[in-house]
Amino acid sequence: MSLPASASGARGPVDERVLIPLALLALYVIWGSTYLGIRYALESYPPFLLAGVRFLGAGVLLYGFLRLRGMAAPTARQWRNAAFTGVLLLGFGNGLVCFAEQRVSSGIAAVAVASMPLFAALFAGLYGQWATRRETIGLLIGFAGVIVLNLGSGLSGSRIGALALITAAMCWAFGSAWSRRQDMPAGPMNTAAQMLCASVALLGVGYAAGEHLPDHPTVRATAAVVYLALFGSIVAFSAYLYVLKHARPAVATSYAYVNPPVAVLFGVLFAGEHVGPFDLAGMAVILLGVGVITLARQKRSA
């Protein structure tokens, strides 16, 4: 989430040195676990209604809390921008991941979405903010790590699932690049507005596709939806918007390289998935790419 203007005074640089690493840690761990959470939730909930209910609940809670705290409601222009960005990031970006995980395992979903930083670098370049040479090297190293990780995954998917995941990555990347140059709601209100707008689109698509909420969902599936709403949506998405506002795109999107090994780790711990030598090698290369991106950012801002 981005800091309100009144909070961006002299302590801003100090706050950023602390908050950016904390926000990145939240993205790495929480969003890495959401792939397994989606898999559990899909045991009872259909994909688009799952995503719609998740963001509706999280959006209502966050919006109501912020309004009670006295934060101003978004302007009409900000609602429009939040709607466009929310549909791209959450409607397409998350809804299609839920759709794909009906056909593709949670691990391969995380691997496919890891292509997002490459699209983000492309779209940022269209706005005149091309990645530096060192950042490009980091992106390529990270992508190579994703390939190595995929070689050892032993996971299979479908063409429609793969297409959905690539489309999700492209929409998330474009929405991220586009929103950086728009008049968006202030601070966490940006998160709430995007979730509310995306939930309307997702629920509409779900009901239009003939989806129905389950009459007797399992306890694990419902607990997964609650986890996705509170941690995956409110906490992690707010952290992402903060990093997106205060760091370069290559840093903000580096979570996509860490999420695959985190997703694999959660699969090992909670779903009994096997980790082979290619998986371990891929994780190491991915983390190397993230390190190169981080060092490039530090040298650029020095």
* Number of beta strands: 0
Work out the radius of gyration: 18 Å
* Termini separation: 24 Å
- Please state the overall shape, judged from the principal axes of the Cα atoms: globular
State the share of residues found in helices, binned by percent: over 70%
Uncertain runs are 1-11
Keyword list:
302 residues; globular; disordered N terminus
Structure description:
The chain has 302 residues and is mainly alpha-helical. It is built from twelve helices and no strands. The chain starts with 11 loop residues before the first helix and ends with a helix.
Short description:
The protein is mainly α and 302 residues long.
List the helices and strands and how they pair.
Elements: H1 12-41, H2 47-68, H3 76-100, H4 106-113, H5 116-126, H6 133-151, H7 159-179, H8 188-208, H9 219-246, H10 249-252, H11 255-271, H12 277-301
Helix pairs in contact: 1-4, 1-9, 1-11, 2-3, 2-8, 2-9, 3-7, 3-8, 4-11, 5-7, 6-12, 8-9, 11-12
